[in-house]
Fold this sequence. Notes:
It is built from 8 helices and 7 strands. It is α/β, with parallel strands linked by helices. It has a 7-stranded mixed beta sheet with strand order 3-2-1-4-5-7-6, sandwiched between helices. Strand 2 (80-85), helix 5 and strand 3 (108-112) form a beta-alpha-beta unit. The longest helix is centred in the C-terminal third of the chain and has 15 residues, at 175-189. 43% of the residues are buried.
Amino acid sequence: MTGNxxxxxxxxxxxxxxxxxxxxxxxxAHAAGLRPVSPGTGAAxxxxxxxxxxxxxxxxxxxxxxxxxxxxxxxxxxGVLTTVDTEPDRQQLAREAYREAGFAGxxxxxxxxxxxxxxxxxxxxxxxxxxxxxxxxxxPDYLAESLRLLRPGGVVCFEGAFxxxxxLDAAHQDTESLRLRELMRxxxxxxxxxxxxxxxxxxxxxxxxxxx
Length: 212
């Protein structure tokens, strides 16, 4: 990659400035040893939520609330974010982050548990957007659940599709890389999806569910 391209990508990723609430949530993520979405990825999520006038969103992987703040800022004022994570301590940090960002408590619903146990209990066709940022090995399973959860015209997004370049290099045969390649093929080749792979941070794979 040329230096000019690296500089362009860095500029694009930082193009939308983050406020104090996001900066604090990001600091908590780093302190917890987590890697939150980049500012550019967060801005992309906010744009997708806003463009779809999203009212009901599912987030798999709460973290400390960085991605949730971006999603909530793109959603309708009466929208509700359902966020799923296995770690209650992280969800408590996210609650604090949402409060600091000015969101009322009824704007978010926290479910503590495994995504593959929680998602089957959610309403078929009841969601405008599903954002996945959790166990990459489970991503193909999240895709199947997302197609059931999304309304026609809804969007599914997967953070970390590049796996820091490993998923793009056939020499890497670890389970995560193999599963991410499986996911990318499934999204790209599905007649039910209109996909795009955005080169934000570690790769944001998105697709619109076709149909009426």
